[in-house]
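Milestone M4 deliverable, item 7.
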Amino acid sequence: MRTRFVIAGVVVAVTGVVLSVVFLTGNPVAVNTGPLGGGPVNGSLCIAGWQITSIAEDDFRNATSSPILVEKSTLVNAHGVRMLRVDLVPIVAVGGGYDLLATGGPYPPSREELAAVADARWGDRRTLPMTMPPGQPGHSWDLVFGLERTANAGTADYYQLQYEWQGSQYIWSSSMAVKMDAGPCP
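Output delivered:
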């Protein structure tokens, strides 16, 4: 009988904590369930040598018929690295495919990289907060994070965007760990 009371007490305590969090924070925000889907899955990215660099996510698109307001971006559990800026760069397909900006290069991209990636419209980039217009065939966005290493080695568990679509809040999240190292990647 005593075991039942202990178990019931634990269930009541856990339920109380969960309800408190929901009431304190408002409606829970859906992760990777909105129109932008989810980010890269289970992996890690190590960028060596650069003090300031970029991470580029390809083929980021709004396939809906209404605009999406991208509000903010976060590096989760970041140590020794900070986000400088997030740019959404329009990519317009020329011919059968398109080129994208690279991960691990300088931020902002060099003139040489921009010249080599003719489909990226860097001059038309948008910073957060920004409205992503409804989808157009052959049109997507290159999501470019500018990052700065603030220690010899920097890490973040993953990165995410918070956005609003048709009055609801969503989070686009990667599960890609980020490492920046002054020397070679381990």
